[in-house]
Amino acid sequence: MREKCHFDCENPEWLRSLEDPTREMLFNDNAPDLDAVLKLFPRPSGQPAFDEELIKSNIERLKTFPAVQTGHALLDLSVKTGLAMIDATFQGNHPKYGVKEYAENRHDGFPPTVISAVDALSAWGMEQRAKEIFTYYLNVFVKDDGTVNYWGPSLSEYGQLLNLANIVEKRIGADGWLPNCFHSLDKISEYLLGLISIAESEDERLVKGVPEADECSIIRKFFHNNAWISRGLSSWAELCLRRGLNPKTSAKIIAGKSKILADDTISAIEKTWRNSHVEWWLSPQVEPLTPSETPMNKITETRFASYANYRYWPELLSSVILPLHLAERVVDARLISGGQFCGMTRFADWLDDWTLYDYLHGLWMIGRKKDFLFSLYGHIAYHQAEGHLTAYEQVTFPPGKEKAAYCLPCQLTVARAARLLL
Q: Is the pTM of this model over 0.85?
């Protein structure tokens, strides 16, 4: 029988809370414990995304390296379920974001779908499948001008694709995919370099672009976009130099452009954040905000600020271009502004964790392991449905229920993050 919840599971104070009401209780001299987190609330409920027998069969056929042995059965099962759901979600090599409305063709080109899948597969030694999916995506969805055939790609996603190529080559080598993908990757690089040239010619320094598909009507100088353009170009230059490749623009010039953009981005961030009207509000862009966009009391009180909390801040953190003091400030801002609940990401009055891996990766890179484990365990316990472990894109506060349909990047959060632990 489930132990009694430590909190009233319909407590309206949660919506008003600026600090995570569960965090301090679970932080002590030891690292957070998954079993302790599991006892806090009733687990989420809802329909599985796929036939449960199909997923069990896919799990049985998994062959990973290393073996999935984290020391906790539920963590292991969450990793395996995520990996098993890749082939259930994809149509052969063709990506699908999720089910229901997320299975519509208009979502197929969404870069985070392939980024999360290829990262997870290559991290767990499933080399052939990673090669097939990555090669297909780059050759089918990258157009001749270097843009992605999707209705609202963010600029950060272009940098993430270039960075992924570098990661994959380090993990599994270049055979069987890089020669076939080189030209698509180089087109992406040239597209980003072209945007930098435009910014330079207009004395803008930072690149303007779309921050997120749902907000594709907003074209501004977002910090996370510029951070990831810099990171992606740096990674591409590194890969080209390591492999002796000959991109259209020399790798040394690419690396130099990347370094200048990183320095300019950090300078712009420092200037912008010095002028913040409240301690925790870290504007994600250079341009001044409108009154309707600016939060005054908590991070989730405007749509724009909710997007900053759930995507723009985490992606800025995961780019790893920030000096430690700025990275720490991003994390602390989330923790004191109503940005999370039981480690999960708040968006307005619900929870939205499909972008959580960026936050987790950032935490890991700056050494905040306790916060890393707390957010990972909160996600496992309360963003995945009890039993079949389907990870919906969005869930309600406990007792959690599906608010938006299953999506693959959310499902793969645990598989990607748990690999860091081994």
A: yes
